[in-house]
Amino acid sequence: MDKCIACGECAEKCPKKVTDTFNAGLAKRKAIYVEYPQAVPLKYAIDAPNCIYLKNGKCGFCAKVCPAQAIDFEQKEKTVRLQVGSVILAPGFSAFDPQKLDTYQYSQYQNVITSLEMERILSATGPYHGHLVRPSDKKEPSKIAWLQCIGSRDINRCDHGYCSSVCCMYAVKEAVIAKEHSPVALDTAIFYMDMRTYGKEFESYYQRAKDEKGVRFIRTRVHTIVENRETKDLSLRYVDENGKALEETFDLVVLSVGMETSKELAAFAGRLEIELNADNFAKTDCFSPVKTSRDGIYVCGAFQEPKDIPYSVMEASAAACWAEADLATSRGTLTKTKTFPVEKNITDEEARIGVFVCNCGTNIGGIVNVPAVAEMARTLPGVTYVEENLFTCSQDSQDKIKDIILKKGLNRVVVAACTPRTHEALFQETLRDAGLNKYLFEMANIRNQCSWVHSKEKDEATAKAKDLVRMAVARTRLITSLGQPTISVEPSALVIGGGIAGMTSALGLADQGYAVHLVEKQERLGGIALGLLNTWKGDNVPEKLAEMTKRVTTHSLINVYTGATVKASTGFIGNFETTLSVKGSDRLLKHGAVIVATGAQEHVPQEYLYGQNNRVLTHLELDRAISSDDPRLPAADAVAFIQCVGSRESKRPYCSKVCCTHSIKSAVRFKKINPEAQVFVIYRDIRTYGQRELLYREAREKGVIFIRYDLERKPEVKNDGDRLAITVKDHILGRDIEIHADLLILAAAIVPRDNEVLAQMFKLSCNSDNFFNEAHAKLRPVEFATAGIFLAGMAHYPKPIEESIAQAAAAASRAAVTLSKDRITVEGVVSYVKEFMCRGCGECERACPFNAISVQETDKAMLAAVVKEALCKGCGMCAVACPTGAASVHHFDDREVLTMVETAFEY
Amino acid sequence: MVLLFVEKPIERRITVYIYFLEGKMIMAEVAIKLEGKSKRSFLDDIKEIVPAGNLSLCLTCGLCSSGCPATGLFDMDPRKFLRMLVLGMDEEVMKSDWPWTCTMCQRCVYVCPMKIDIPQLVFNVRAARPRDQRPKGIRGSCDAAVNSESCSAMGTPVEDFIFVVNDVLEEYRAAQPEFADMVAPIDKVGAEFFVNQNSREPMTEPDEMVPLWKILHLAGVDWTYSSKAWAAENYCLFLADNENWETLVRRKAAQADALGVKTYLNTE
Lengths: 907, 268
Prior knowledge:
The structure holds 2 protein chains of 2 kinds. Chain A is an alpha/beta fold. Chain A is built from 24 helices and 44 strands. Chain B has a 3-stranded parallel beta sheet with strand order 3-2-4, with no helix packed on it.
């Protein structure tokens, strides 16, 4: 594997074609292959059961053509024994196989595909190179239907009572992308039961898909798909919401398949002796959402419950947090540090540039005239050595480059090969091994930008390669060594907010051995959870909260400040200084990281007689009434719930995520206490995602009646003597239903707190709903764009306890990455300001996305921009924004960049 | 390949309670009133009878109605039907003629994600209507079969059946030499299969009987018709008349036993 340079010659020559499972069986690959384009490491592998040589002992074409001698047919499966302190399970899920649903004929009709096949069809690396065509005749479809809940929410045709959580959102996404890909006015229709777009920014995406993109959402399910044998078009019969039978023909039907645990995975769990729940997902509870039934084994992702990427990433970091806590005492005991020779000072030397031009097998050399490029490079000023390599990236080439640097006294290196994205770090390490600063290196990408894109025009490809090398060399003459200063780290964190999220983060860090300052505005820890009774899985919230609070308050590394607020904060990653106001007096804290866990609050309803009739309660009021044994509860003969009170409306377009589950949990409770009571849930979409669906089923089983309303026709609530009269139109019968209820519970929205103050202080951004914005929804869900500051709990978005806890543990884990270091190394490519040119206008400060540059008063009582190098990512926004040219970025200053441009036009 | 359906002996006895809720008639446009404690409803009773007690599990997803051939008739469909029962609108359901349009084809329960047995519900709703108020046509067919030695819903006499079978058989044996040896035995004792016959063919389209004979002939199957209780149809099932449904099935089974036939093939 070390030898493979991923040139692809082997796959090119391999005679054996195999069905490509990564492309959902829609394409073929070879028996020697890279599983998918982004595979890490990017290495070819032999598919042994399909390899002709391994089966018959003849063939071996791959070995013959491999320029790196990387093919080894003798490799055998090895059993490796590892001694570990914790185990994290992230085995993922299997997609439901729809073959058994005979009314949809997935295995017979070519144009009935699964959503995963659709993903591949839409992908540029997919079977049709991103060209949207259907499998039967490669025709561009003009009508596509998605059928939801295939293998989910079904206890008849499959044993999956749960909701797969992600299919609604991915179907909406696929429909929107399909429309964008299609050259025709594509018609898309999604057939569904409840549209479950409950995640952050999901509801607005759904609304845009509907209103702006014209995706049709049809609330019904299709019984049978019938194929026209000649055209292969597919006819769908369905009833609309009024019960009218309709028939429509589509070119392509996508089955939105759900997630399941494979039999093999279930057996694996058995071998690990961890418990699975009835649906074959790893059993966890809400207060330790990534801990399996066995100590030391953690789980994350869809093996725990069907879930999307952001939440899977949060859980992954949460699992790391708790595993790190278990291993805290042995942290760092197995790490090895690589040492490099002392860097040579080249400041006073003339440029002595070595240029290495790569053939990349035939990948570059087959198109670009590499000898001609090398020949040209020899003529360039500053170049003292030029060499062609078959593979510049191979290990022997590295050794050679190192040798040549030393022998020839090179002080700068240019590699003309592939992309710095994958290879820059490798060559930089080689430079460091040879005693050169890693910034004395430059790449010219003559593969992607020449041989690949101009494969049919060899001469032009060669001319362009020469241009790129000339430009690279010209720039390289100007580049210099850059320092990478290190800064110290204060190994403690400030956690703002003492609710479940804040306490979880505090414990996550303290259990790993870091000091934590936990700040709570109220006099008591607990936050919103103080008013909650139990989770949907039945955990007793007051008990668990008391345990958690006790652990926090007695932990030797956690300082709790109640009745405290954050007054001011300065500094940056590793080195914050924050002033707290604790019961009126100021306290100054030093800390290396910040976790914002300030929570959210319940919306005060403005409708449905709330505040006018004391029989109308919110969720939190209901939970309080239950815990204070309000006699009206057991006495109620009829109870109604109204969902989406203040959510999913134009003023507050997001879904509050937890309310459906909370209402249904409470509805079941009413039915348990008094089975004769009539309980109604008046809803828009029931969003009991994942295994919460089982609760929804239990409610229906117990006789809770669900009635759906539209935003255009909300239920009407009137006083009715001692009771309340609620009128709502039944969604099936189209007739008004009059409910006489003793209690009305409003599923009031969850609204953000006043996040503006903290946002200003730490320069954090909020979305249009005023929840804090994470750095990246999928890949950095618990971090802010500003380094060293993290986010957890409902300050990010409404969420249930288990998700708050997972996110809070994740934030602790991410913060620990900083706190575990003695010093942080600052990258050399950072911005700098020539103070004498700066007029303190602040354009750079406004432009910086990382809070890394700000205008400050100088020693000479002038205003000038100052860069916090620890926060700077070297993006160059400040340099662009600066009207005087005072701000620049090291390694990419105007001279270095403009020289390249000038060189490009020289000949 | 021939699909052979074997009718199993039916032993179930279904008792149905009818609850006419006190109070006024509910007209179509009047709001549905739901108040106070939930009253015992038809659905509650059904739950006790039908083993899969999941009738209130309906997700109102529409799968049943999307596949139902009776959707739209009388402005009704299986989903509306079940919804009315869930909301306790028993009186209106009992008045509706829609349940009589159901063909018991089971397309609904086949795909229902909650496996709600709507045909079973339909059957019980039918049974809840006094017999003399059930649809005349179905009732007439049930009665005709009960009163017929042939168990024929069309009242086909035994002699007519025997004559038609033999007449058609002769005709085909003569006209198609490759089937000169084909048989259509009646009352053959000890045959492997008892084959029943819908009355419609011998009465109105006798040629339609022949393809099955040919298949049985080519497959070398040892089979027989019966002269008595030969009719395949059983309208008492559709009438939800349990007693006569059972009577007819028992008469047919007894005839098969009398002939010493091993297997009863239901061609319906």
